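Could someone model zinc ion with this protein?
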Amino acid sequence: MPEGDTVYQSAHRLDAALAGQLVSRTDIRVPAFATVDLSGERVHSVASRGKHLLMRIGDTVLHTHLKMEGEWRVHRPGERWRRPAWQARAIVETPTAVAVGFDLGLVEVFPAAEEADRLAYLGPDLLGADWDALEAVRRIESAPEVPVAVALGDQRNLAGLGNVYVNELCFLRGIRPTTPAGEVEAVPLVDLASRVIRANRDRISRTTTGVDRRGERLWVYSRAGQPCRRCGTRIEHGLLGRNDVELRDSWWCPNCQR
Ligand SMILES: [Zn+2]
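Reply:
Sure, complex below.
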């Protein structure tokens, strides 16, 4: 699942390719918005908010979320797309670029005036200019019984962390993912979350270990049964969540995380 840094990078690429240009064609391939036509409108900006991507075009916002397998690609006009056309959910074309959103988990269009209200439920954006660590801490502490890994991944507390960062942050702080949020020091945890995702904001390959070599970039995520990089203990794996719907994979070192 894409994390906030991936979405941030996508937004920057899209902004560089589209901002300021007039749209020559749009094709929104979801039934509710299939008739939307933004051709002739100007692209003002493309920005991320947590894991949400906002394309501001004319008086309208094209709001998308990558969910599991989604991505936005920028092609030159006439260039062969890098994924099959049937996976395309949204296309925004200008004279110099064709932006294609493949396999997007969410596509919706709404008036620009509604943007703030529509996203008001999101917590502070870790990669936003208005990042507010204290507010994120306040939100996490408001539900002390919730497992810390669930609290970190809850976009209403702080926006931008996916399951990779959630698991890695728990390791880096020496905390079991199942520990109730109220038993964890939220301030240093939130501070670390901000520093780690910002350090990766402009990187091609995400790393939490500081090592940029294939297979050595993460401490615990997706490493079940492998030795802990710090102590050699086998990494454990389990499912965690408040209910069946939000179950997420968790990995931890039973020795380093207590
Ligand atoms: Zn360990």
